[in-house]
UniProtKB/TrEMBL annotation:
Keyword Transmembrane: yes
Protein origin, superkingdom: Bacteria
Species of origin: Spirosoma liriopis
Presence of keyword Transmembrane helix: yes
Ranges annotated as spanning the membrane: 12-31
Species classification: Bacteria, Pseudomonadati, Bacteroidota, Cytophagia, Cytophagales
Name used for this protein in its record: Uncharacterized protein
Keywords, alphabetical: Membrane, Transmembrane, Transmembrane helix
Length: 175
C-alpha cells in the first residue's frame, strides 16, 4: 500500500522561509562585520622608512619618516655595525669614533631617542642620528652603508611591521 504524503501547511512553509531568511541575514551580518574590520585595519597603516639624507652643507643624517596612515608605535630598535649588534645609535657613533681615533666621545653628534613606546605620528619626519662636525661627518657618511638598522613597530590596532636600512633592500616588510 502506497504511503500518501501530507502536503505542507501554510504555517510550515512560512516557518521554513523565515528560518532560511534568518540564516541568510546572519551570514550577511558576519560578512559585513569582517569587511568593516578589514576597512578599520587598513585605515590605520603606519609606514616607516629609514634613509640617509645629505643637506646643502654635506652633513649626513639618518632620518626616520612615517609616510603611512596613522601613528607608528615603536616596539624595538636593532642596529648592526660591522657585524656587531647595538641597542642605541649612541653606541654606534661611539664605536665609529673609536675606530677612527676620535676617542669614544670625539665626534660631536646628536640623535633622537627611538625606543619602546616612542610614537611617530603620521607624516612625521625626524632626524635620528647626525654628526655635526664637517670632518667627522665625512667619516660618518663613509661608514653609514655599514650601519644596518631594523625598527620594529605596530599600529594602534596591534598589527606589526619592521623597517630596515642597508640590508640589501629599502622596503618595509610586514611581519
Amino acid at each position: 500500500m502506497p504511503i500518501r504524503k501530507k502536503p505542507l501547511s501554510r504555517d510550515t512553509i512560512i516557518a521554513i522561509a523565515a528560518t532560511v531568511t534568518s540564516v541568510c541575514a546572519l551570514i550577511v551580518a558576519v560578512y559585513q562585520t569582517k569587511l568593516s574590520r578589514e576597512q578599520q585595519l587598513n585605515s590605520v597603516w603606519p609606514y616607516l622608512i629609514t634613509y640617509e639624507a645629505i643637506d646643502e652643507h654635506q652633513k649626513s643624517s639618518l632620518m626616520v619618516a612615517n609616510y603611512g596612515i596613522g601613528p607608528a608605535i615603536i616596539d624595538s630598535v636593532r642596529l648592526v655595525y660591522k657585524g656587531k649588534s647595538y641597542r642605541l645609535p649612541t653606541q654606534v657613533v661611539s664605536e665609529i669614533s673609536k675606530q677612527h681615533n676620535r676617542g669614544e666621545y670625539g665626534m660631536p653628534w646628536s640623535h633622537t631617542g627611538l625606543g619602546k613606546g616612542f610614537v611617530i605620528p603620521q607624516g612625521q619626519v625626524f632626524t635620528w642620528i647626525t654628526v655635526n662636525d664637517s670632518s667627522d661627518n665625512a667619516i660618518f657618511r663613509a661608514e653609514t652603508p655599514q650601519i644596518k638598522s631594523s625598527i620594529y613597530y605596530h599600529s594602534i590596532y596591534g598589527e606589526h611591521w619592521h623597517s630596515v636600512l642597508n640590508d640589501g633592500s629599502e622596503m618595509v616588510v610586514p611581519d
